[in-house]
């Protein structure tokens, strides 16, 4: 198959920041790429060969879009899977496959899958709705504290809540959900696994999410994780096992907990490029976005090693600001060696909206960590006054 | 000035591969970018906020394009300078300035400038046309062998010829030209200098052009050059002196000869991102394209150091092939660690047409050099049979 400067067409469902960073790679390789997204202000409106505005959840829209391309992939999980089934049945290449997406899209089914495949994960119970969960609490089948997760359509902390008392239940929506055992952990880790169509498989180094000591929010994604080599090996092996169990093609980001006694428990997965791999654009021999393209087009996988230490800081909208965005002090952080801002292209900021990220690379991890703090303390995503 | 996700508009004159690689950076920063190019199949037709088809040499076209943007830059020197003069006179920011471009555009004037500014360069004589040169030969004011260069519109070896006898003159066009003393040299080197509007200045490491021993064509651009530190320092200082003499803003690629006795002689300059800096995308902390954007927008300059050794191999159309392009063995070279192809997006190949380049990065220069040879021996730019 000739992908380069040819008539071949790759389709991407979703036109957000992940799609935008994928387009940087398809442009580099001159691979024609069509993108479908419901918003005509999507970050992917530029850089695609063709941009289509349309619903990702509408059967006909997704089906017709898929018919126009040779290989179809996603940058967001919430797409019409029935349309993907139909396309796949007709012989269209869809990576990841709708079968895998179905297993992942529902967090209850995802957790069941780990249990069935002997993949270490925390204990969980599934409920068809909140009422079911409340009944289980009444019968002491579930006890406080636990982690509530909505089964579908949650993302980035949305749809996840630590429930310590009946009081915490009052705001929750009446949707399918799971109750998960709360596991005390030392570290939250992630490993990205790449697997191409032919089955070649590679893992990226383990990254570590460093949390703000008070706010309990991820502040930094750090590569490599500052953990023992043995624990890192264990985490990479668990991630490999998850990828093999899913028979997954493309990238699979596996989020894990390192418990107090150095067990590795799988938290959840994302079958696509992931926030925990953004550092790879500057730090790795092969960025996660290039690797995703290589995987789904059955090209040889690239080297997943890092050239230098990498730390990623998310740029999210500051509280109290809504409107046309301004990146306060961006020139100040750009004056520091090894600092690269990525601006996703959303014109309007809102509190906590993901607007971009900043990568810090350095030969020395301690130095990178110091600079990351300087970046974090200076840049602010606010709006025009 | 707020450039990021704002109404600010950067204009680029020229929509070829250099423009395409600049757009990768303006997309990363979400800076609105307009591009003007005469071809509607230009590599920049994708990725720009707006792409305009039109002549770069036509006064009105360039003038009107310039009026629509806030800052104007170039990715090719051959543009209508009168239009840029008019725009600059009206207060438009044009970097590099038309004054600098005028001094560089004509190679005779460029050489005069070095002589006037005590910048080491080989001896030269200017001629209004070929007849003038022939008369000088008759009078022994010029003697064989010498290097003939057409004064304007030459590029990539086009417009340069080593003249060893009267016979070699017969094919030359009747245009303004210079005759340059032939200087035996050990190495052809290049240094890219970045200078922002405020005058902050940084140089990239010295790169070395390695020639094919028989074909006398550049095979590899190697960073860092495998030369003595003292010579490298001298080359960086000469390049700085050239940049300061021109009072240049943006990138200035300075091509130089290292003579047998380790003198550094300036050959010529390019006031923009340059083939000799393509390695920087994968090897440097800051790619030359990002650096050009930083320079002309008066942002702080990024770190010009390398993370790893880098070697660049040009992908030019193979002799004997014209038509829809195929990159033979591209999958084979992509299987090697640290190998990244860049495909410029030209659908049709022709003999010697610049179609792309491949970057090889490695911690170890000797290993990188070995891989570069493997890449060179495998990949071929041919056409569909």
From TrEMBL, chains A, B:
<feature type="binding site">
    <location>
        <position position="188"/>
    </location>
    <ligand>
        <name>ATP</name>
    </ligand>
</feature>
<comment type="function">
    <text>Catalyzes the ATP-dependent conversion of 5-aminoimidazole ribonucleotide (AIR) and HCO(3)- to N5-carboxyaminoimidazole ribonucleotide (N5-CAIR).</text>
</comment>
<protein>
    <recommendedName>
        <fullName>N5-carboxyaminoimidazole ribonucleotide synthase</fullName>
        <ecNumber>6.3.4.18</ecNumber>
    </recommendedName>
</protein>
<dbReference type="InterPro" id="IPR003135">
    <property type="entry name" value="ATP-grasp_carboxylate-amine"/>
</dbReference>
<dbReference type="InterPro" id="IPR011761">
    <property type="entry name" value="ATP-grasp"/>
</dbReference>
<keyword id="KW-0210">Decarboxylase</keyword>
<dbReference type="InterPro" id="IPR013815">
    <property type="entry name" value="ATP_grasp_subdomain_1"/>
</dbReference>
<dbReference type="GO" id="GO:0004638">
    <property type="term" value="F:phosphoribosylaminoimidazole carboxylase activity"/>
</dbReference>
<comment type="pathway">
    <text>Purine metabolism; IMP biosynthesis via de novo pathway; 5-amino-1-(5-phospho-D-ribosyl)imidazole-4-carboxylate from 5-amino-1-(5-phospho-D-ribosyl)imidazole (N5-CAIR route): step 1/2.</text>
</comment>
<dbReference type="GO" id="GO:0006189">
    <property type="term" value="P:'de novo' IMP biosynthetic process"/>
</dbReference>
<dbReference type="GO" id="GO:0005524">
    <property type="term" value="F:ATP binding"/>
</dbReference>
<dbReference type="GO" id="GO:0034028">
    <property type="term" value="F:5-(carboxyamino)imidazole ribonucleotide synthase activity"/>
</dbReference>
<dbReference type="GO" id="GO:0005829">
    <property type="term" value="C:cytosol"/>
</dbReference>
<dbReference type="GO" id="GO:0046872">
    <property type="term" value="F:metal ion binding"/>
</dbReference>
<feature type="binding site">
    <location>
        <begin position="180"/>
        <end position="183"/>
    </location>
    <ligand>
        <name>ATP</name>
    </ligand>
</feature>
<dbReference type="InterPro" id="IPR016185">
    <property type="entry name" value="PreATP-grasp_dom_sf"/>
</dbReference>
<dbReference type="Pfam" id="PF17769">
    <property type="entry name" value="PurK_C"/>
</dbReference>
<dbReference type="Pfam" id="PF02222">
    <property type="entry name" value="ATP-grasp"/>
</dbReference>
<dbReference type="InterPro" id="IPR005875">
    <property type="entry name" value="PurK"/>
</dbReference>
<keyword id="KW-0658">Purine biosynthesis</keyword>
<keyword id="KW-0547">Nucleotide-binding</keyword>
<dbReference type="Pfam" id="PF22660">
    <property type="entry name" value="RS_preATP-grasp-like"/>
</dbReference>
<dbReference type="InterPro" id="IPR040686">
    <property type="entry name" value="PurK_C"/>
</dbReference>
<feature type="binding site">
    <location>
        <begin position="267"/>
        <end position="268"/>
    </location>
    <ligand>
        <name>ATP</name>
    </ligand>
</feature>
<dbReference type="InterPro" id="IPR011054">
    <property type="entry name" value="Rudment_hybrid_motif"/>
</dbReference>
<comment type="subunit">
    <text>Homodimer.</text>
</comment>
<keyword id="KW-0456">Lyase</keyword>
<keyword id="KW-0436">Ligase</keyword>
<keyword id="KW-0067">ATP-binding</keyword>
<feature type="binding site">
    <location>
        <position position="149"/>
    </location>
    <ligand>
        <name>ATP</name>
    </ligand>
</feature>
<dbReference type="InterPro" id="IPR054350">
    <property type="entry name" value="PurT/PurK_preATP-grasp"/>
</dbReference>
<comment type="similarity">
    <text>Belongs to the PurK/PurT family.</text>
</comment>
<feature type="domain" description="ATP-grasp">
    <location>
        <begin position="111"/>
        <end position="297"/>
    </location>
</feature>
<comment type="function">
    <text>Catalyzes the ATP-dependent conversion of 5-aminoimidazole ribonucleotide (AIR) and HCO(3)(-) to N5-carboxyaminoimidazole ribonucleotide (N5-CAIR).</text>
</comment>
<feature type="binding site">
    <location>
        <position position="107"/>
    </location>
    <ligand>
        <name>ATP</name>
    </ligand>
</feature>
